[in-house]
Amino acid sequence: MSDDEQFAALVGMPVSTRGPAVAPDPVNLPMIRHWAAAFEDWNPVYLDPEAAARSRFGSIVAPPLMLQTWTMATPRITGIAERGGSPVEPDGEGPLAVFDRAGYTGTLATNSEFEILRYLHLGDVVRATTVVAEVSPEKDTRLGKGRFVTWVTTYTDQHGEVVGRQRFRILKFRPPHPEP
Amino acid sequence: MTRRVHRPGVVSGVQVGDELPPLRLAVTATVIVAGAIATRDFMPVHHDRDYANRQGAPDIFMNILSDTAYSSRFLTDWAGPDAMIRRLGIRLGVPVFPGDTLCYTGVVTRVAREDGETVVEVEFRATCDRGDHVTGTAELQLPMEDTNPFR
To answer: How many CB atoms sit inside 10 A of residue B46's CB?
Structure first.
């Protein structure tokens, strides 16, 4: 199998062999407050129950672009650099391991497109199912040789209803000074 | 804590060609690290300069989850608390590093009425000295003025 065929075979595969990512915590005010403070976004529907009650949303909602944050992996800090920046133990069987084995150990996000079907309320539990949608041929980029990988994530709530979708594209590249 | 109070008014009579109020952001290491951690993105290129250098970057750089976060703030600072973002897509250009100043600008490119609400499309970008950092498009749903509790 040529390199291109090997990468084309990844299309349609789940990004994780460990199943969908389930948010470790339900949508909650402390994480919303942390986010709002980091970005100095004081939209009152995110933090003020009275303002939120007067709004179309009826009660506090999470910032819609926090959608991806809820299911981000809880990191293991020790050894993070040695794992090539992966916050969690690498999924040795997953599609991204194919890139690492081929030397494309660098990662740079390039595109992120969200479709938001409904805003999340406190207590919602988000689940993310992510599938590889596209892998480009090898390209010369400003960071070195690499391949663009696009994946599509479907976000659902505790009732299995779809709350949003995301197309995310990253460049997997050969870094100039790889980790020893 | 100083909380910036939203202008309770909401955009009214939106027309194609309307420009959004610009959002300027002085990017520091603190801004980058605060955004990365608040979005639960622990990739070392967003908080560890030595690691970023080994990846070929001159410094830590902003993560894409922060870019979508600032994009949404830029949009709703203008559109108000009763606006709903239905779509938001961005493409990254040059990375931003500590010391850069980002400026978000945007323009309304489409206005439509749907089910008693106004749907607007905005094209926006965030630029720094080295060029476009973010180019994006978003679709927002705005309440009609007579039903808007924040008027």
So the answer is: 23
Indicate yes or no: CB of A177 within 8 angstroms of CB of B44: no
The predicted complex's ipTM stands at 0.91
Q: What angle do CA A111, B139, B23 make, to 5 degrees?
A: 75
DSSP bridge pairs for A149: A135, A170
Cβ-contact B19, B107 below 8 angstroms: yes
pLDDT tier for residue B146 given thresholds of 50, 70 and 90? low
Task: Give strand ranges (E) for A117-161.
Answer: 127-135, 139-141, 144-156
Q: Please state the domain extents for chain B.
A: 23-147
Contact A109, A169 (CB under 8 A): yes
Domain that holds residue A86: 3-26+76-173
Q: Which of B35, B68, B81 sits opposite A51 (nearest CB)?
A: B81
> What's the total number of domains in chain A?
1
Q: What is the CATH number of domain B23-147?
A: 3.10.129.10
- CATH number, position A125: 3.10.129.10
Contact B38 A69 (CB under 8 A): yes
- Residues in B closer than 8 angstroms to A23, CB to CB, are none
CA distance linking residue A23 with residue B40, whole number of Å: 12
